[in-house]
Every structure is written in structure tokens, then in C-alpha cells.
Amino acid sequence: MSPAIALAFLPLVVTMLVRYRHHFRLLVRTVLLRSFRDCLSGLRIEERAFSYVLTHALSGDPGHILTTLDHWSSCFEYLGHMGPVKGQILMRLVEEKAPVCVLELGTFCGYSTLFIARALPPGSRLLTVEWDPRTAAVAEKLIRLAGFDERTVELITGSSEEVIPHLRSQHQLSQADLVLLAHRPRYYLRDLQLLEAHVLLPAGATVLADHVLFPGAPRFLQYAKSCGRYRCRLHHTSLPDFPAIKDGIAQLTYAGPG
Q1: Bond from prior residue into 240 cis (ω within 30 degrees of 0)
Q2: Longest C-alpha distance within the chain, in Å?
Q3: Termini Cα distance of the chain
Q4: Which residue ranges traverse the bilayer (predicted)?
Q5: C-alpha dist (Å) from residue 14 to 11, 25, 26, 239
Q6: What is the pLDDT of residues 21-47, one digit of tens each?
Q7: Is the pLDDT of residue 18 over 70?
Q8: What strand order describes the sheet that includes 153-157?
Q9: How many Cα atoms within 13 Å fall on the side-chain side of residue 219?
Q10: Tally of CB atoms within 10 A around 106
């Protein structure tokens, strides 16, 4: 490429960098710096976060553990977790719906799991599914450190596609009153349809889906709005520590198979 052509593209490049500077910062923190630290330490980000929690958080206090994770993510390494604003929305909805059984797809480090567990009514249970065994091991330790036993929070290791068909037979989940989709947005539609196919959603069930605006789940949202079986609401938020990057939690209310 000649210097003249390169110079012609320079204003466009500068404009794009200015417009998407927040996305560029996010890319640097979540991909470049994280990969460097993974190689340097031999640990994943969730393992480094848990090590910090062990030395700075109060055992048996889920609220303090959550605050410690938020502090670590803001001051040291961006965790890419749900964050406190979405966490408060989630906890409020759990308290409001008072579900007997909750299903979470995508445990990650256990952050959103703690928000759900601390808001559960007495006697309710939470089943949380994480496909990666190494990540699940970290989440298991965090959940137990917060004081929740297996009767309240059961962690299942496996892909959601394989776990959902066996929830009734292997984990005694007849139906889920509230579901949180927090794994990969491209799987949201597939897993929602699996839940429907296996009759795991009672009429009136609440389905929450994180990251529906960023990185986005357009096919999931289109299906939920057009199939006629859900009432939809969107809670507008942003990414933690990146207020300029808009995101949202979708809240679906299941009307039944119709």
C-alpha cells in the first residue's frame, strides 16, 4: 500500500478508534492482558480472583465476597462478571418471584450464583450448570466459602445441551420457576427451546437472559417476542466499569405452551 493511500485512510482509522475507544479498552483488558497474565501465572482469571477472595473476603458472608470480587475486577483485572447493578436487579427479581427452584445456565466464577442464593426463600434450591470443569471447581469453592451447602446450591458440570434433557431424571428438577441464562448468548435460543421441549417451564415462569445487547442475542430476542408464549421486558444496564458500553437483561414471563 502506498503512503498516499495509507494517509487517505488515516482519518477513518482515527474516527473509529475514538468512536469505539471503550470497546478497544475492553478488548485489551479481556483478551490481551488476560492472555498475558494467564501465561505468566499458569492460572485462569477466575482462579486468580478466587485467590484474592480467600485472602480478603469474610468466609460465610456472601455479600462481602461479592463486594471483594467487584473490587478485584475494578482495581486489578477485569473479571467480565455480571456486576453489582445487574446483580441487584437479579436479586430483586428472585425476592419478588420467590421461586421454589431456580436453574442457572453459566456459573462461571459463581458471582451471579451468590446473588441468587442469598435471595432464595427458605427451602428453595438452585441448580447451576457450568460446562468447564476447571471453572466449575473454582465456583464450587466460592459457593461453599459463602456458606451455601449442596442442599441449597447444586453445581452440575456439563454442557447445557447435554444437562437439560436429564434434569428431571438425574437432578429431581420437575420444573424451574426461574431460569437465568448467563452462559454464551448464541446458545440462549437453543437452550430455551430445550427447556420448552422437556416441559421444564411452568406457566408463569420467569426467564432472565444476560448480555442480550452486548455482545447480543438477537435471534433469542426475536423468538421470545414473536412466538407468542412470552411477555418480554428489557432492563437496560451497562457493562461493569464500562458505562459507555450499553447492555441489558431480558426478562421473559412464560405464558405456557399455548
Answers
A1: no
A2: 71
A3: 60
A4: none
A5: 5, 15, 18, 24
A6: 888 889 888 888 999 999 999 999 999
A7: no
A8: 153-157, 125-130, 101-105, 178-181, 206-209, 242-254, 230-239
A9: 10
A10: 24
Mean predicted confidence (pLDDT) in 72-79: 96
Return all residues near 160 (Cβ < 8 A) that are at least 6 apart: 105, 106, 129, 131, 183, 187, 191, 194
d(CA 156, CA 160): 9
In degrees rounded to 5, what are phi and psi of residue 203?
Answer: -60, 135
Q: Over 70: is that where the pLDDT of 1 sits?
A: no
Query: How far is 106 from 94, CA to CA, in rounded Å?
Result: 17
Q: What is the pLDDT of residue 12?
A: 58
Spatial distance between the Cα atoms of 150 and 147, rounded to a whole number of angstroms: 10
Stated pTM of the model:
0.93
Answer left, alpha or beta for residue 28, where phi above 0 means left and psi between -120 and 50 means alpha.
alpha
Q: pLDDT tens digits, residue range 104-148?
A: 999 999 999 999 999 999 999 999 999 999 999 999 999 999 999
| Interval 221-236 mean pLDDT | 97
* Chain centre distance of CA 130: 11
C-alpha to C-alpha distance for 258 and 239, rounded to whole angstroms: 36
Across-strand partners of 239?
Answer: 242
Positive or negative torsion for Cα 78, 211, 148, 64: positive
